[in-house]
Amino acid sequence: MPLQPLISGREAPVTHYVIHSFASLCAAAVLFMTPARVFAQAAAFGPSNPFYAPSTLPFHAPPFDRIKDSDYQPAIEAGMAQQIQEIEAIASDPAAPTFENTFVAMEKTGRLLARSLQTFSAVASANTNPTIQGVQSAIAPMLAAHYDAIYLDAKLFARVKAVHDNAANLHLDPESQRLVNIVYDEFIHAGAALRDADKEKLKKINEEASTLEDKFQRALLADTKKAAFVTTDRSSLAGLSDAQIAAAAQLAESRKVQGFVIPLQNTTQQPDFAELSDRATREKIFQNGWTRSEQTDGDLRPVIARLAQLRAQKAQLLGYPNYAAWVLEDQMAKTPQAVMDFLNQLIPPATAKAKSEAQEIQAVIDAQHGGFTLQPWDWDFYAEQVRKAKYDLDESQVKPYFEINNVLENGVFYAAHELYGLTFAERRDIPVWQPDVRVFEVHDADGKPLALFYCDYFKRDNKNGGAWMSSFVDQSRLLGNLPVVYNVANLPKPVPGQPALISADDVRTMFHEFGHALHGMLSNVEYPTLSGTNVPRDFVEFPSQFNEHWATYPAVFQHYAKHYQTGAPMPADLVEKLRKSHDFNQGYSLTELLSASMLDMQWHTLGAGAPLEDVDAFEKNALEKSKVDLAAVPPRYRSTYFLHIWANGYAAGYYAYQWTEMLDDDAYQWFEENGGLTRANGDRFRKMVLSRGNTEDLSTLYANWRGRAPKIDAMIEDRGLKEN
Ligand SMILES: [Zn+2]
Fold first, then answer.
1. Does 154 score more than 80 pLDDT?
2. pLDDT tens per residue across span 13-22
3. Which residues contact 369 (CB under 8 A, 6 or more apart)?
4. How far is the CA of 8 from the centre of ligand 1 (A)?
5. Which pLDDT does position 44 carry in this prediction?
6. What predicted TM-score, i.e. pTM, was given to this entire model?
7. What gap in Å lies between CA 612 and CA 370, rounded to an integer?
8. Among the options 11, 403, 418, 513, which is catalytic?
9. Which of 77, 172, 432, 660 is 20 to 30 Å from the Cα of 393, by its Cα?
10. Are 492 and 459 in contact (CB under 8 A)?
């Protein structure tokens, strides 16, 4: 019963990468957690609905030429009803439970729901409108109830448990055994094994928690908006460009206030700090942001204290010492201790580097006779001066070498050809959801069709921010399905007749999302539940971040980075500047991420008996205890505006961004040690990692390929944190 989530881009670990928005980071969560507002009347569902039967297009591609907005809701509702019937038939099968009649049968259910929902999910994120949004609100609570009905079905669970408990005698192949373990754990995690009284308790906790999560999300949005910096004094905005000031004036007008409004971003640091030269303005904006959720009418501290307590109680009810232990059990890291050990290895080099960066910045302040000690709101302003002095890189010099089609075909596709032998042929006959979308049929080295790949790169107003990957069809030998996957981004669209010249960040984004796409397209597994990118959060960003490395690999870079008019390669000094700029500000950016990860872990390792915490005291103590309490380097998110962990499904999961970075750097190091970009290396990686989905314990799978467990050394070196 797999449901492919949207796989998002990275959580901007370094400043020169694209910052992906919350919307895309958690697009799936947003889609499925939207509260009920509209209960539209679903139209009748019948053979005229384009989802009624499997698509007859190549690879079962969605028939976008026939799909109307009004087709989605009836198909999704019928899909849920059909799956419940199928599940009911399995649960009440008079035959004794077997692997075939229970687990394999479950894998085959819900096909109508999958094809309608996966298509809907794509347009809801990449090409939405008020009708689609109405459908989204209507189906969210229905889907939540639908999955509860399956996972809390006592008859079904009895069969699942019977097969699971007897699995040792069944001599299943390893992938089937893995399926039994994974699906059984999903039931346990949902509370299927609880006594009825405890199921009731769990339901109450879940209800209160989801109300608080919803409240947190809404109040934070309002608090953040309210805490914007407002001024009538234009001179306080010195340093901003005329266009930025005009935008601030326009925002003031739309909010019906005098003067200028600088909105807050939901992070501690604010984008304008690099340019605002008035120190008092920076401090005011910073303080507004720091205390955004502490205003009397919108104080979120009691909300998160209670949420942390409820989560600890939920974990205890399900038999775990704390919430993190419950979350991490099915992740690659497995235990809170493993996560803590990992973070604790990174903290000393990261904070040492941040301290030396702080010294460098303080020297600039002193040289300018500033007469003050560096504070968080000064960091970006002076770091920008350090950056300009050290790595002066002008984006406009670089862009002419990054024409989008050239980057795609001679860079992204080329690397995949050199590593995995893939070739790409554009298909103009496959219907798309929007005219900008391109479709490619992907062929394997032996010429056999492998997958269908769509890309929708240009920014639109009806698209979520950021970049992501997902699929229309998951690969599965059991279902006879080849993968149909897509990438979405928000790259600037040129005016007609002009080439699309993109930034180095954008190039990286294309390689990143295509890494996810490869994970989906190269999947070669039996069961859809274990297919492609259906892997734990602390593994899913590994193939994507790994694929980014090829963007700057010399043989690939030289193949695509050519001037769009002359075809000349990028000059060596420009390449060198680009390479060097990678090391900039790494101490700061890693430290702020580690602080956030530590806050997340500390909140979610509270025991069930812990009292309601004083949020400020708890946070201060957590940072001190973790040795990430640098005065000039606050956490990327404070507890009170840490949306990822309180409302977006990343509780005890924020570390995954750094964990997968360890994996991708460690993996790339293996390639460097073994001859780099070769078919032999690529094929081995494909066979042992990319094709395997979630068919084996991921730390075992990784260690088998790497020859050992992952190490953090390559990450520390790649970030430029190695002591000389
Ligand atoms: Zn990603």
1. yes
2. 222 222 222 2
3. none
4. 5
5. 84
6. 0.90
7. 43
8. 513
9. 660
10. yes
